[in-house]
């Protein structure tokens, strides 16, 4: 039977809230008329992306862009109208023409994530995501896996870093999340040296820039700065500790705390001064500049 071609009218009627859910975005608050999201186009802490539930129309108040489901997918996937229609025609099961109930807080909870498969990173979309962060597939495979999972019956995939309690930190182009239990990720090499980052991409960046660090150091990814305090005793057992935390308020606060509580620690964040974190520095800086500054850094 010949597959029915999606047309613009049907595509515009596809529920935007359901489309965003498929891509890993859920509302942070809702009313009968509208749902508010953290923008899927950038990192933010205050929701500025609104979906009108009655008109099935979105508007991003950060950029004052808006439109239909077609416009949303075009912007998120960086593709043409024709490509949007082709994708929707080939993946009809991924979207619903019926308005879905907005997930409540329980449905959005971490314990609703069901891990389906853990494998080596292979998916082209994930490799492209890594490339956009200047992380090679070889580096990523040293720490991470390709994780396939479900949320409320819908299937997704992401790059995953397992923590020491068995939970996973999950990242893809559109979504950042984790499964329970939440904990730090500690990669032990029986070293007296320790390198600490806040997130997985910061640690992957370190490995990308300093290949030998996987042999010369134990590696600690906090996964949230809130875990720094609970790790003070373990951190204090190392002879030398390099701190590569973010240069935002939370990261700098934790850096100060660890420098005070653990005299064996050194703040290495001057390496990427002027940037929020080490990955942003690597992505936005010229390769020659990055290479030179790395050569000037002396690790324990």
How many domains is the backbone divided into? 3
Helix proportion range: 25-40%
Let me know the average pLDDT: 85
CATH class of the largest domain: Alpha Beta
Query: How much of the polypeptide forms β-strand, as a percent range?
Result: 15-25%
CATH architecture of the largest domain: 3-Layer(aba) Sandwich
Q: Kindly name the structural category.
A: alpha+beta
One letter per element, helices H and strands E, the order comes to: HHEEEEEHHHEHHEEEEEEHHEHEHEHH
First and last CA, distance: 66 Å
SS element count, helices: 13
Report the uncertain regions: 92-111
Strand order of the largest sheet: 1-2-3-4-5
What's the story with the biggest beta sheet?
A: 5 strands, antiparallel
Q: How many beta-strand elements? A: 15
Overall geometry: elongated
Return the CATH topology of the largest domain.
Dna Topoisomerase Vi A Subunit, Chain: A, domain 2
Structural account:
With 300 residues, the protein is α+β, with helices and mostly antiparallel strands. It has helices at 8-12, 16-22, 69-77, 81-90, 105-108, 124-132, 137-143, 200-209, 213-216, 232-236, 249-261, 278-284, 287-296; strands spanning 29-30, 34-37, 49-52, 57-60, 65-67, 113-119, 145-151, 154-162, 168-171, 176-178, 185-187, 193-197, 218-221, 240-244, 265-267. The strands form three sheets. A five-stranded antiparallel β-sheet has the order 1-2-3-4-5, covered by helices on one side. The protein has a five-stranded antiparallel β-sheet with strand order 6-7-8-9-10. The longest helix is centred in the C-terminal third of the chain and has 13 residues, at 249-261. The chain is elongated.
């Amino acid at each position: 039977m010949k597959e029915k071609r999606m047309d613009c009218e049907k595509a515009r009627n596809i529920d935007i809230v359901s489309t965003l859910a498929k891509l890993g975005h859920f509302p942070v608050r809702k009313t009968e008329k509208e749902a508010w999201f953290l923008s899927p186009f950038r990192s933010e802490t205050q929701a500025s992306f609104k979906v009108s539930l009655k008109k099935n129309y979105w508007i991003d108040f950060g950029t004052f862009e808006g439109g239909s489901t077609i416009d949303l997918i075009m912007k998120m996937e960086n593709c043409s109208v024709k490509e949007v229609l082709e994708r929707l025609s080939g993946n009809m099961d991924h979207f619903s023409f019926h308005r879905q109930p907005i997930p409540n807080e329980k449905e959005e909870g971490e314990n609703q994530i069901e891990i389906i498969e853990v494998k080596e990173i292979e998916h082209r979309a994930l490799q492209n995501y890594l490339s956009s962060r200047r992380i090679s597939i070889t580096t990523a495979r040293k720490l991470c896996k390709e994780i396939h999972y479900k949320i409320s019956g819908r299937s997704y995939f992401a790059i995953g870093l397992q923590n020491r309690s068995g939970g996973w930190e999950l990242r893809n182009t559109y979504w950042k999340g984790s499964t329970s239990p939440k904990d730090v990720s500690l990669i032990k090499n029986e070293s007296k040296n320790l390198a600490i980052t806040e997130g997985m991409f910061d640690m992957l960046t370190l490995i990308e820039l300093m290949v030998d660090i996987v042999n010369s150091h134990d590696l600690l990814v906090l996964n949230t700065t809130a875990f720094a305090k609970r790790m003070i005793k373990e951190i204090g057992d190392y002879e030398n500790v390099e701190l590569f935390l973010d240069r935002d308020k939370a990261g700098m606060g934790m850096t100060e705390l660890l420098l005070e509580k653990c005299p064996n620690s050194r703040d290495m964040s001057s390496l990427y001064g002027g940037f929020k974190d080490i990955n942003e520095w690597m992505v936005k800086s010229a390769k020659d500049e990055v290479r030179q500054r790395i050569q000037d850094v002396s690790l324990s």
